[in-house]
Amino acid sequence: MALGDHLRELRRRLVISALGVLAGAVVGWIEYPRVYAGLAAPFNDYRTASGNDLVSLNFGNATAAFSQQLSIAIFVGVILASPVWLYQVWAFVVPGLTRKERMVSLAFIGAIVPLFLAGCTVAYIVLPKVLGVLYGFTPRGASNIQQVSDYFSFVTRFILVFGGAFLLPVFLVALNLVHVLSARMMLKAWRPSVFGIFCFSAIATPTPDPFTMFLLALPLTALFFAAIGLSAIFDRRRERAAPEWTHVPDDEASTL
Predict the structure, then answer these.
(1) Domain coverage including residue 106
(2) Do 54 and 143 meet the contact criterion of CB atoms below 8 Å apart?
(3) How many structural domains does the chain have?
(4) Is the pLDDT at 123 greater than 80, yes or no?
(5) Does the pTM of the predicted model rise above 0.85?
(6) Is residue 256 part of a domain?
(7) Which of 16, 90, 201, 206 could form a disulfide with 217 if both were Cys (CB 3.0 to 4.6 A apart)?
């Protein structure tokens, strides 16, 4: 494809993704009370457990409630429309697959959404512990009146980062399918990759206990090695399907 064709393809997929998010945002707007209660539950649980009445969520101005409902509706739209925009990303990244590789890619498309939702679920599970540690730094006698916009911005980004992190194996395999990253290259770099996964987990889960960090790092590490295994299978299939003369050195005669 020419550059113009690539840009038109990108525009088309962005429009489809935006329409999917918009449709999901309408549902989020309608179900706002339930979503608000669910996202605020970790904060309210911490306030109840700590017995500190000075910890509360605060709407700072007249437009804060409307702005917050709009942002949460968009967040819900991103979650609900994840099958749409994740497929559009996948279809744009790997457009030039063979027929067999396209059949295999259908399995990855089916794995993208569960992995993304699993990451979001893990984030929601560890969120109360993260909040407990962060709010635990509040000095005695001091109030911790949390702005609603700041709180929900932290929560939604935290959840989306976890969801995106769980898509690591999908995009590694995608890079393998387009002949950018081989299984051998990934295996050689497994030590710095695992170290980077643990560093990312430590930053994304800012708690002093190792349990929370391992809760994210271990699944990501397992998914990373699963991607290596799948990439190795695809590399072997490509080598077997390649003509014999492609494996002959340039200074030797081949059957061709």
Answers:
(1) 3-242
(2) yes
(3) 1
(4) yes
(5) no
(6) no
(7) 201
